[in-house]
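Technical annex, item 7. During the second reporting period the consortium partners agreed on a shared format for inverse folding records so that results from different sites could be compared directly. Each record opens with the tokenized structure and is followed by the designed sequence. A conforming record, contributed by the partner at site C, is shown below for reference.
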């Protein structure tokens, strides 16, 4: 894992860099060498703020912690990222099969459904549907007809798979892939 350490309006001392590298090296068991970790250190209102962002195979793990010291913030950040990995392990196994996480020997396997329910969310239903190219306006109309809060469609002009969704303020949003 490649580690970038950034200090915002402060100097990061060598012992702090060494400690960050040691703690993040414990996460190497989950990630391949191509992964990058960015650690940003700053002080906000006299409190140490640490933000860790790890990018692995199109997946982003992020933790931001405010503590009295950078040492305790680092410990909590590492715990948060490990929790994210454990909570989303099934999704990650599917997504990162080719690169990123060497999944086979790094995750425990659930023996029964109760174990999964204790860990958090999981997919309970899969739905397949055919869709034809349409404009975002047509997609909004179709979404409203179905009574859904979002709708996936193929844009008729760009041929991209996009999403329209209803915002909390009553307006609509459009998600377009890059």
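Designed sequence (site C submission):
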């Amino acid at each position: 894992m490649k580690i970038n350490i950034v200090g915002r309006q402060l100097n990061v001392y060598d012992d702090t860099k060494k400690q960050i590298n040691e703690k993040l090296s414990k996460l190497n068991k989950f990630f391949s060498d191509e992964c990058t970790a960015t650690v940003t250190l700053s002080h906000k209102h006299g409190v140490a703020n640490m933000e860790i962002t790890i990018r692995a195979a199109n997946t982003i793990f992020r933790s931001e912690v405010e503590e009295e010291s950078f040492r305790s913030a680092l410990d909590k950040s590492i715990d948060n990222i490990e929790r994210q990995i454990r909570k989303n392990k099934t999704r990650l196994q599917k997504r990162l099969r080719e690169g990123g996480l060497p999944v086979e020997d790094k995750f425990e396997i659930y023996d029964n459904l109760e174990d999964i329910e204790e860990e958090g969310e999981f997919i309970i239903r899969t739905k397949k549907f055919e869709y034809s190219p349409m404009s975002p306006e047509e997609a909004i109309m179709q979404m409203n007809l179905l009574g859904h809060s979002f709708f996936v469609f193929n844009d008729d002009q760009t041929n991209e798979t996009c999403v329209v969704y209803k915002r909390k303020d009553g307006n609509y949003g459009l998600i377009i892939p890059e």
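The CA atoms of residues 109 and 128 lie 27 Å apart. The mean pLDDT is 79. All partners now use this format for quarterly exchanges.
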